[in-house]
Design brief:
By secondary structure, the chain is mainly α. The chain has a domain at about 25-64. The protein is built from 1 helix and no strands. The protein has one helix spanning about 30-60. About 0% of the residues are buried.
Length: about 60
């Protein structure tokens, strides 16, 4: 009886079912790779330009 006011074990274990892919078809590794490639292709050009600008700046700073 010493658990009064502390919650005890009431409600423990709830909420463990979150994040389950119920009703979603299984996705293959190839499908995930294709999705990732499609996503990264949208941002790759921007990242390449940013990296090129950074490297040019680092090279200029190194020559001083």
């Amino acid at each position: 009886m010493g658990l009064r006011g502390r919650g005890g074990f009431v409600g423990r274990g709830r909420g463990r079912g979150r994040g389950r892919a119920l009703g979603h078809p299984n996705v293959t590794r190839e499908q995930l790779d294709n999705q990732l490639d499609a996503y990264m292709s949208k941002t790759k050009g921007h990242l390449d330009a940013e990296l090129d600008a950074y490297m040019a700046q680092a090279e200029a700073d190194g020559n001083e």
